[in-house]
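Notes to self after the Tuesday call (sharing in case useful).
The group wants a holo model before anyone commits to mutagenesis around the pocket. I volunteered. Ligand is D-glutamic acid. Logging inputs and output together so the record is complete.
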Amino acid sequence: MIKNLPDIYVLATGGTIAGRAGSSTKAGYTSGQLDIKEMLKAVPDLDQIARVDGEQVCNIGSQDMSFEIMTRLARKINETLEKQEIDGIVVTHGTDTIEETAFFLNLTVNCTKPVIMTGSMRPSTAVSADGPLNLFNAVAVAADPEAKARGVMVVMNDRIHGAHSLTKTNTTSVETFLSPVTGLMGTVIYGEVKFFRGSFRKHTRESEFTTDYDLPLPRVDIIYACADMPPDLIDASVSRGARGIVIAGDGNGNMNQGSIKAAAEFAKKGIFIVRASRVPTGTVGRNVEVNDDAHGFIVSDELNPAKARILLMLALLKPRTGEEVQKLFYEY
Ligand code: DGL
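Result:
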């Protein structure tokens, strides 16, 4: 007798999990080759843990992910989760930008039902492909009654990460995703789910952000700081229409004096300057080596440059002061 299983809806976007290679033991492959039906067929026993259906939203390598697709995905998720019969959503996605889409959805999905993302580091045709077990585990987490109201989570390699904390740390390894500042939300081993914590930040139902806007989103650029960084990179971004700049700074969000001067000039003219860090772990604090109060800068706190950009783009959809924007970086 089939148990009264949860209904989980899968939205597929492409990535390596849908990738195909000519050889099962060579590195080269193409993302976004399998469709959702083929992917689900490759995961035995799914019907033991949930009633699964789904659809293909797109089929791309996630290096081609866009805010147009993210917006379409968020609207589709909000619409799907309004259906009483749907208990949770799984999104399959490339790993290159999964942390960006996860954080975007964490801010714009307004339901407490589980939204779980997953992908893979090896294509579907590889020896020891990691996609099928990642997908099985993602459905198991989405089907778990404890997964509600924890924000968007990413399941990869038996680990459950929060959208706010995870980041990709290795170009090829299956254990590439870490949550270096706040640690894991939990683990899922062959479908056995264990949660260690909830989310420490605002998300989904508590979020003030929605997808009720017209594209394109306000332009925010990321500038990678380095030795002898040319200050005119900031000028170049602003001249191309950037309304905000995220500095992927060295160390604690630093940049050279010439760039600080250029950034401070633009901050005075209403361009939002956020100091994040190119360093993979740790937080960026106010007024450590840079006088943020004097220059009118904002710090990203725990957010890496890619996520800081997304928060600032959504924040700029309405008029805000520097203090109001800084508060958002401590809340989300
Ligand atoms: N093309 C990259 C992407 O879709 C491959 C990385 C992956 O999915 O693991 O993000």
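Two things stood out.
The pocket of D-glutamic acid is lined by residues 15-16, 31, 61-63, 94-96, 119-121 (CB under 6 Å).
The mean pLDDT is 96.
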